[in-house]
Structures are given as structure tokens and as C-alpha cells.
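Incident review: delayed structure delivery

Summary: a single-chain prediction request sat in the queue longer than the usual turnaround. Root cause was a stuck worker, restarted by the on-call engineer. No data loss occurred. The affected request and its eventual output are reproduced below so the record is complete for anyone auditing the incident later.

Affected input:
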Amino acid sequence: MRLIAFCEAAGDFRLLSGLVDRVLRESAPGWVVDLLDSPEAVRTWEPDGLGRAYFDLHKLDQYEERLKVRVPHGHFDGRPGGAGALMARTVFWIVRALPKQDRDPIDGVVLVWDVDQQRDQRPEGVAAARDEARRWASFQIVCGFPDPEREAWVLAGFEPADEAERSILDELHQRLGFSPVLHAGRLRDKDEGALRNIKRVLREVTRHDSGREERCWTEPQLTTLRARGVETGLAAFLDEVESVLLPVVDPGAAKAPAP
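Output delivered after worker restart:
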């Protein structure tokens, strides 16, 4: 399965690719799970040609120029596009152009974009472009919208590993007035020094350790991540990966397309 990721940073790619592998590992048939010991035997991620393992949403103009893509502007089903609609249309047209470069076709696109302060507008805009693309695309499309940012998805998987981590989490709970693990969506302050800034909270609980961050999406049960990730878009993303991408590697697992 040849996949391509569009996101905003390397940390986002580590998270989304790790979550895709988790879903495949826990939901796919045994032969797929066995192959995931060498993940590239099951899925590969298309690099962007500029040194990244993912396509950077901030560099779409560079990809357009390199691939000579001319994205049409205009309405979506007769209506003006919302926030991110044209950006998402550009993503799908870039992917459409890739097979023309003497490569195997792309099987699936995974687009993950923080909602920040546009928790309704961004998903709606991207959905308009996604629905349009599904009419012509030969590839599957999965979209994820961390609310407010990708750190919310990481916090959903934080389980104190020792007394020191438990103490940090308990203290944060007391200062915030709520659990940052269960209610990460409330951490919406953009000032990085603020008590409710989600990046600051994640750094505090993981003590600036990227390896500790990664354990937040590799160790907990998916049922835990789904239960804690309803409000932040994580549960919806995991469900969409399962319903859209799993049938690519296991056609017998086909389900109705995600809405």
C-alpha cells in the first residue's frame, strides 16, 4: 500500500504514521500483522522530493511548480469553498499528478491539519474538497483534524509510568481544574507561556522527551485513545483509517465510506 501524508511538521507525520500502523496492527488480518514487523512490506510513505518523508502543507506552491499542477479555482458543488477548501483541492490535484512521474499509483492520502481556532470551518472546507475529489480520485482519502492541535492527540495516550509522572499529572490537574489527558480540547490558549497552552502542557508531562511522546500513541490500547479522543478528533481519525485504509490491504474488511 503506497501512502502519502500531507501535514504541517515532522512531529505530525510521526504521529499520524504511527497511528496508521497501530490501526493496521490491531485490526488487520494476521498475515498483515506479521508483515508489520517490517512495515515497508505492507505500506510505504511517498517522500516529497525535497528531503521530507511527508508533504508539507506550507510548501504546496513548491509542489505545484515542480509537478506543473494547475489547480482550478471556483466553487464546490455550486458553493464558495470554506476555510481550507482550496488548500485541500490543491493537495488532491498534486497527488493526481504524481503517477504521471513514472511511479506506481498512490493508494491513499492522509491529510492531517490542526483546526486551531477554526474547529468547524476547517473540517467543513476540507470535506467539500474531499467529496469533490472522491468523484474522480483513484486513491482513498483520510482526513484528520486535531482539535486544537496535534498535541491533544498525544496527551490522550499519556499514562503515568512512575510516581514522578503521576505527581506531574496530578499537579497539572489541580492547577488547571481538569485533567489535560481527558480534556485536552480545553487547552486552547495560544500564548506558549500560558497555563492552558497545549504545547506547554505536553512538554511538562513528557519532560521535553520525544521518545516519551511517542509512547503516548504506541503503548495505550486503541480503545483508550478512542475514548479519550472523541472531543479532539482523534477517535474520528482512527475510525476513518480503519474504514478507508484497512480495505486497501484487506479487501474483505471493506466497510461503508467514512462520512
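Verification: The beta strands are 2-7, 44-45, 55-56, 108-112, 140-144.
Action items: add queue-age alerting; document worker restart procedure.
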